[in-house]
Each structure stands twice: as C-alpha cells, then as structure tokens.
C-alpha cells in the first residue's frame, strides 16, 4: 500500500525584518509610483534638502529680526535655537502617530510650516511697529511672541524627518541605518545651503520680509508637489482636495503679502518714525532711516530703529561727549563711529585742531551726512573741511593698525555695549589698543549708554577701561529735551560717559573754544556726582572671551 505524502513544510520567510504587529503597514516598494524607485528615492531626498534649507532660514530670520527689534543677539539666538531644538524633539515623537498617513501628514505639515514661517517676520515687525514701545503690559510681549513662533515651527520641523523616513521606505525598503544616513545627509546639506543663502542672498537682495515670504512659498511648493506627484496613490479623494485647497490658500496668501510688502514697510515705518520718513535704505544688514529735516523739524538718523543722530537732544549729547575730552592737547583726534559728522563738528569748534580721522562703520551714513541738505546743515558740513579724513573700517581693526601715540584724543561714539555687534568695542582688549594709540597727556572718552536704566552696563564699561590701565572720571548728563534718544519712540532720560587717561583726568572745558550751549563747569561737577550715586563697585571687566554686557 502506498502511503499518502506528508504535507510539505511551509516556505521560509524572505530575509529582512519581520513586520511588527500593530504598526504602520509595511511596503516592500510602492507599485503606484509615477517614476522608477531610484528616481523616487532621489526626489524624496531632494525634498528633505529643500525643507531643511527652508527650516534653517526660518530660524535665522527669527534671530535676525528679534536682534534688530530687541537688541542683544546672543540672547535672542539662544532663545530661538534652544526652544526650536526642544520642540523638534517633541515634534519627532508626535509624528509617530502620523506614520500610517505619512503622505497627507507631511503635505499638511509643510503647508502649515510655510504659512507660519513665511509670515513670522511680518507679524513680529507689525506688532513692534503698531504697539510702539514694548514696555508696560507689552514688557514680555516680544520674547513671548518669539518663543511661540520658535515652538510651533520647531514642532513642525521636527515632524518632517520621521514622515520622510516612512515615505522613503515605502518606495524601496532598506536597512534603517542606511535610510537614516541618506536622509540626514540631505537634511544637513540643505541646512548648510539655507544657512549660507540667508546672509549672502536673501537678506541683502530681498530683505527680511520678502525673503521669509519667498522661503515659505518654496516650502509649500516642494512639500505639496512631492506628495501630489509622487504619493498621490496614497491619498484619499478627500485628502487630495484638502491638501490642494490648503496649499493654494497658503501660496495665495504668501503671494498677496509679497505684493504688499512695499506698502506694509512704508506704513510700518510711518508708525515707528512718526510718519516723517524721508530716506530708508539697507546698509549691509543694517537699516538706515532719516526722518525730519523739513517744516522746522530737526533731522533724525536711525540705525536699526535706534536714534543715532539728530533730534532736540543732539547738542546736549555731542557736547557732553566731545567737549570734556578736548580740554587738553587736541591737535590730532580720532573719532570711532560718528559717521554723521556731529562729533567732528564739536571737535572743529576748538582752536588748534590739525587733523580729525573719522572711522565710520558704514559708507552709506557718511554719504547721507554729506549729501542730505538738512543733515549737512546740522553737522556744519564738516566733511568739506580738509582737516577731516573719513575711512570705512571696523573700529577694532583700525585701532590695531594705529601706531603708538598717534592721537591726542580718541572719541568712541558707538552703539551701546548691550548690542552684541558692539560688545568687542567695549572690551578690555579694545581699550588696551586705545591706550596704546594715545599720546602722552592724551584722553579717551566713551559713550557707555544710559545710567539710570542700565547702571550695571555703565559701571562695567568703567571697570573695563580701568582694567586696561587707564584712570577714569565717569559722568552722567541728563536729557532734558523732549526728543527720543533710543529705540524709535522710546525716551532715554540720561547719557553716561567715561573720560579716561593715563593719569586721572580733570573734567572741564577748553576756555579757548566757544561756549557750549548746554555745558558749564558747574554742570560737569554735578554730572560726576550724579554718576557716582549709581556706582556699583568691584564689577569684573568685559573681555573678548568673556563679554559681560549680554543678557
């Protein structure tokens, strides 16, 4: 008798990881692709590249605008980057729930990110322009808004990589390590391109607002196009319509805002600068705005929203800065900053001046001071005087090239040390270079910011100058005028100055010069007393490797 055959054993499973129960469906390859798997995989990596570039542009845009509006770029960069990195981790975890719907999830996330990232700069600037001074109830408004944008964008950016990983595995299953390496390589290279494009292409050519809006449009086109074309078989009819409407709405809004950027900027400037903007231009990464000068209104020169020259308080400030430093040898004078010509005007009122070297950080400011009739009248056309020589250079580099004992007076007319770009110009190393440039009997004078609102910064400047081997006399001059002297719309109530020399200088005025409008020997004596009442002793000096003005 023939025995029946025993049942054949089951075939062994194909090599590779076994699908886990309860997880997203496993794809050995997508049969509905409109292209070959290799091409599809390349397109997903290209999408990761562009999305990473856009994400980094959003981060840098927030840092740049927040630094411009609020100052202290170190703090703003720390807030944005730390919050965004944290939120990216949370977003990656949250994206695990969307893996089953990776295509529609990725498309909607990119549309949302394009909308929020593209509009973030315009929203921040609008709040700044139409709320005026961020004080009182708005004291924490800017940073709260900055944190909200950073948090939301970080969540969305963090969700991109897990969903892209799922999509690339649907095209062609590969080992997890290889897929992660490919995807992260595309992501990091995209971040490099976005990081370089922002300062060298988007910011100088398009500006902050248009650059952010254009980045959002690219983000929406790449995200929506990748899903619609490559993974359209994974979308339900309802999902297709939802994604189509969302992307068209986002692109339409971004296009409309781009068309209105010019009108928006003009309206915002009128709100910030009291509706009297005559000149507005971009000097590198710095916004230069000139207001007034007509109908009896004095001209005002703003750099990045902060008043640097002009206004009703112009004469008290420049007299207090220059006149005490000139009460001694003053044949050769170096002015660091002062591209508006107003400090040089006060210098030239003293007999015996033979040479004035002005080191301006931006040539556009000097051109305005030369060519604008109102500003030229205000500075008494000092740049036409043959004794005045102007150069455009970094003040620190300029001092390093200055020979020993080259000047009798060094005047530091620079932005406040609280702005990170200026911190190195208030460091012990900088004052050491200034000390070397001073001739015997020479004097250094430094504008160290408002004393009443920032006494610690003021006395840190004074301590830093002393650490460089100079003797100091700090003094505080009250601003009794009605004009603002800080951020547009904000009134600064005093100025702090430090007069320094190798031996303790005497605070006084040159009797041979014309009498100042506002200063007297008695007021200078009172200015020393006023400053000393705010003294904070034993503050450590600020150095290049340990700046103490941020925070």
Automatic annotation (TrEMBL):
Annotated PABS domain residues: 252-502
List, as start-end ranges, the regions of compositional bias called Pro residues.
Answer: 1-18
| Keyword field contains Transferase | yes
Group of enzyme by EC: transferase
Q: Where is the protein localized?
A: Cell membrane
Question: Where is region (Disordered) located?
Answer: 1-30, 532-551
Q: What is the membrane topology listed in the Swiss-Prot or TrEMBL record? A: Multi-pass membrane protein
Q: Which reaction does it catalyse?
A: S-adenosyl 3-(methylsulfanyl)propylamine + putrescine = S-methyl-5'-thioadenosine + spermidine + H(+)
What's the main place this protein lives? Answer: membrane
Cite the entry's keywords alphabetically: Cell membrane, Membrane, Polyamine biosynthesis, Spermidine biosynthesis, Transferase, Transmembrane, Transmembrane helix
Q: Which SUPFAM superfamilies match?
A: MFS general substrate transporter, S-adenosyl-L-methionine-dependent methyltransferases
Biological or metabolic pathway of the protein: Amine and polyamine biosynthesis; spermidine biosynthesis; spermidine from putrescine: step 1/1
Q: Where does spermidine bind?
A: 318, 340
Gene3D superfamilies per record: Vaccinia Virus protein VP39
Q: Where does S-methyl-5'-thioadenosine bind?
A: 394-395
User: What PROSITE patterns does the record point to?
Assistant: PABS_1, PABS_2
Q: How does the record describe its quaternary structure?
A: Homodimer or homotetramer.
Q: Which PANTHER family does UniProt cross-reference here?
A: THERMOSPERMINE SYNTHASE ACAULIS5 (PTHR43317)
Known NCBIfam families for this protein? MFS_SpdSyn, PRK03612.1
Name this protein carries in UniProt = Polyamine aminopropyltransferase
Species name: Streptomyces thermogriseus
Organism classification, top ranks? Answer: Bacteria, Bacillati, Actinomycetota, Actinomycetes, Kitasatosporales
């Amino acid at each position: 008798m023939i025995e029946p055959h025993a049942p054949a054993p089951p075939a062994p499973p194909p090599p590779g990881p076994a699908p886990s129960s309860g997880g997203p469906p496993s794809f050995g390859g997508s049969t509905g692709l409109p292209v070959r798997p290799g091409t599809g995989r390349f397109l997903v990596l290209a999408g990761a590249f562009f999305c990473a570039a856009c994400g980094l542009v959003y981060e840098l845009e927030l840092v740049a605008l927040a630094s411009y509006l609020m100052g202290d770029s170190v703090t703003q960069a720390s807030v944005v980057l730390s919050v965004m990195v944290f939120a990216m981790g949370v977003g990656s975890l949250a994206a695990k729930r969307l893996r089953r719907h990776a295509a529609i999830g990725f498309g909607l996330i990119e549309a949302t990110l394009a909308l929020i990232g593209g509009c973030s700069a315009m929203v921040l600037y609008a709040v700044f322009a139409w709320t005026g001074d961020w004080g009182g109830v708005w004291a924490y408004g800017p940073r709260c808004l900055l944190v909200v944008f950073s948090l939301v964008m970080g969540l969305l950016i963090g969700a991109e990589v897990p969903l892209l990983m799922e999509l690339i595995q649907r095209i062609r299953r590969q080992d997890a390590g290889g897929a992660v390496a490919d995807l992260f390589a595309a992501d990091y290279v995209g971040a490099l391109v976005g990081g370089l494009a922002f300062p060298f292409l988007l910011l100088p050519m398009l500006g902050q607002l248009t650059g952010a809006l254009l980045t959002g449009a690219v983000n929406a086109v790449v995200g929506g196009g990748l899903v619609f074309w490559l993974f359209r078989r994974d979308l339900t009819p309802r999902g297709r319509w939802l994604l189509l409407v969302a992307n068209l709405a986002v692109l339409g809004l971004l296009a409309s805002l781009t068309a209105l950027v010019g009108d928006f900027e003009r309206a915002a400037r009128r709100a910030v600068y009291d509706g009297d903007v005559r000149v507005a231009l971009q000097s590198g990464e710095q916004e230069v705005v000139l207001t007034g000068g007509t109908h009896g209104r004095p001209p005002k020169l703003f750099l990045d929203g902060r008043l640097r020259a002009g206004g009703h308080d112009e004469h008290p400030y420049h007299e207090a800065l220059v006149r005490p430093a000139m009460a001694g040898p003053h044949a050769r004078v170096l002015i660091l900053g002062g591209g508006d010509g107003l400090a040089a005007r006060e210098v030239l009122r003293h007999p015996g001046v033979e040479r004035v070297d002005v080191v301006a950080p931006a040539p556009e400011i000097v051109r305005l001071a030369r060519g604008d009739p109102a500003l030229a009248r205000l500075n008494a056309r000092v740049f036409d005087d043959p004794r005045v020589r102007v150069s455009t250079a970094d003040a620190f580099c300029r001092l390093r090239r200055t020979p020993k004992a080259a000047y009798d007076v060094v005047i530091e007319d620079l932005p406040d040390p609280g702005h990170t770009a200026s911190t190195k110009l208030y460091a012990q190393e900088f004052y050491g270079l200034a000390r070397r440039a001073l001739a015997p009997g020479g004097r250094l004078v430094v504008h160290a910011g408002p004393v009443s609102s920032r006494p610690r910064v003021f006395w840190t400047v004074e301590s830093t100058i002393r650490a460089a081997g100079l003797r100091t006399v700090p003094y505080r001059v009250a601003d009794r005028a009605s004009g603002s002297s800080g951020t547009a719309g904000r009134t600064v109530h005093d100025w702090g100055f430090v007069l320094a020399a190798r031996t303790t200088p005497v605070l006084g005025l040159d009797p041979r010069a014309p009498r100042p409008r506002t200063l007297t020997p008695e007021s200078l004596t009172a200015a020393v007393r006023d400053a000393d009442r705010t003294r904070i002793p034993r503050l450590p000096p600020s150095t290049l490797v340990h700046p103490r003005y941020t925070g």
